[in-house]
Design brief:
Alpha-Beta Plaits, globular, 16 helices, Uridine Diphospho-n-acetylenolpyruvylglucosamine Reductase, domain 3, four-stranded mixed beta sheet, single chain, seven-stranded antiparallel beta sheet, alpha+beta, 33% helix
């Protein structure tokens, strides 16, 4: 430890249990590990020094930001050293000519959003954990959020990156060129690699023009298939769509009961689609026209002011909070092709009931991009039978077992369901080429049985 203290300063190598405790358990409480120390570099040079030392010593490290992941990807489950990057918190000036900004990895998503807004711009990625989640973490996991439909995930925001390889070499490309075809896109490669190929220390991101007017509509349907067909209509007819979300009758009832919300409609309905549109001119007429063209809308509630919009969003965003009040749920984040989404939503509760009759399934998510959040309550969190069954349903329908949160340690044993042996072999080749000693987050993403040593 003395060498590490010399590199980053003694106060920035923490071993006291009270500090370490917050770094060895994940956001869900499902994954708990241990670490000899939490190391907090404050500069890129300090990151370089720490990685060189760990590489020479064969000491594994887990990069960590806000530690808001849901799949155990930033937890030292095998006793790794924790590399806490939150001291890397510099925000560069917004370039008004290009709409770009360079930020360090430890900057929170909310800080970046406010920084962009103060300069008259908007950052396109938004998550519920915005006040804690860091830019480095969102790059490592290619985080998405509620506005993927309009702006894309984190990878679409990247125009440059700074990252440190396992042996201390620094990859730095932060000039922000919108056009650059001079070789491999390393920013795109590192984004979503979950800290297995390099430690991201900074990112150059593109910003977007903000919109002055916003309108939200909550549409009720008496049939799931009709609701999801309407999603396609809304996407086609509404060129200023920000988000299209969905939830089901049982989820709405739970949210209203647990959070004390009034029900949005006098009559019960089977499925709900929440659509948000935003533009500089009033998007209300365009949204109204798109809803009129959507067959099967049984009822609709519309909000145009900020408070009313938040109130409608609460029915969707309140799902995780309401579900957690029932006890720690099993959370699975998956995506499906649009034409197989309804079939999947119907199949999951039937399959779960066969395995665990007393369990309850709650599903909601981002209908516009096929992302479903499957939550299961009344189930032992170490019971892998439901996880395997749900992932098999996903694979049968050619979906993905990870839409937003990454593979982490929780899903690595299931990667073969959605990636071929040849694809996994390519992953291993990349890992070995950039991290031959296997020190960078070695227990995530790649299946354990043949992971590089």
């Amino acid at each position: 430890m003395s060498a590490l203290r010399d590199m980053v300063g003694a106060p920035n190598v923490r071993t006291d249990p009270d500090v370490v405790a917050a770094h060895v358990i994940d956001w869900t409480g499902r994954f708990r590990g241990a670490t000899p120390a939490v190391v907090r570099p404050g500069t890129v040079d300090e990151v370089v020094a720490v990685l060189r030392h760990c590489n020479d010593e064969g000491a594994a490290i887990v990069p960590q930001g806000g530690n808001t992941g849901l799949v155990g990807g930033s937890v030292p489950l095998q006793g790794e050293l924790v590399l806490d990057l939150r001291r890397l918190d510099d925000l560069g000036p917004v370039d008004a000519r290009t709409g770009q900004v360079t930020v360090k990895a430890g900057v929170t998503l909310a800080q970046l959003q406010r920084h962009a807004a103060d300069a008259g711009w908007l950052y396109g990625v938004d998550l519920g954990a915005r006040e804690v989640a860091t830019v480095g973490g969102t790059v490592a996991t290619n985080a998405g959020g509620v506005h993927v439909l309009r702006y894309g995930p984190t990878r679409r925001q990247l125009v440059g990156i700074e990252a440190v390889l396992a042996d201390g070499r620094v990859i730095r490309r932060l000039d922000g060129l919108e056009k650059d075809n001079s070789g491999f896109d390393l920013a795109g490669l590192f984004c979503g690699s979950e800290g297995t190929l390099a430690v991201v220390t900074a990112a150059r991101v593109r910003l977007h023009a903000p919109t002055r007017n916003k309108v939200v509509a909550l549409c009720a349907f008496d049939d799931l298939d009709t609701a999801l067909v309407a999603v396609g209509t809304l996407r086609r007819e509404l060129d200023c769509v920000n988000a299209i979300e969905f939830f089901l009758a049982d989820g709405l009832e739970l949210v209203c009961e647990q959070l004390g919300l009034a029900r949005p409609f006098p009559a019960p309905h089977a499925a709900f689609v929440l659509v948000e549109a935003a533009a500089n001119s009033d998007p209300t007429p365009a949204l109204a026209h798109a809803v009129e063209l959507s067959a099967g809308v049984a009822d609709v509630a519309v909000a145009t002011d900020v408070a009313a919009c938040r109130a409608l969003w609460r029915y969707r965003e309140g799902h995780p909070e309401a579900i957690n009040l029932l006890g720690a749920p099993l959370k699975l984040d998956v995506s499906l092709p649009a034409d197989r989404l309804a079939d999947f939503i119907r199949a999951v509760p039937e399959r779960v009931c066969e395995i665990a009759p007393d369990a309850r399934v709650w599903m909601f998510g981002h209908a516009g991009d096929g992302n479903v959040h499957v939550n299961v309550t009344g189930l032992a969190l170490d019971d892998e039978r439901v996880t395997e069954a749900v992932f098999e349903l996903v694979a049968e329908r050619h979906g993905s077992i990870s839409a937003e949160h990454g593979i982490g340690s929780a899903k690595r044993r299931y990667l073969h369901l959605v990636r071929s042996p040849d694809e996994i072999a390519v992953y291993r080749s990349l890992k070995h080429a950039l991290d031959p000693n296997g020190i960078l987050n070695p227990h995530v993403l790649l299946p354990e049985e043949t992971a590089p040593r």
